[in-house]
Amino acid sequence: xxxxxxxxxxxxxxxxxxxxxxxxxxxxxxxxxxxxxxxxxxxxxxxxxxxxxxxxxxxxxxxxxx
Length: 66
Description:
The protein has 5 helices and 2 strands, in the order E-H-H-H-H-H-E. By secondary structure, the chain is mostly helical. Strands 1-2 form a two-stranded antiparallel sheet. Helix 2 packs across helix 3 (27-34).
């Protein structure tokens, strides 16, 4: 699965640590999500979407989708 978490975070001007603090997760978790090595749980995906003011579908999409 691909995602736009990195781009969304940078648009806010936030560090990975700031996003991790907002989400209640480790900075390593944020790094893993941004790099596509870890797919977040559904509750965490909803928190990410809420932080960025978007929907899960706007942040995450299948690898085969352009």
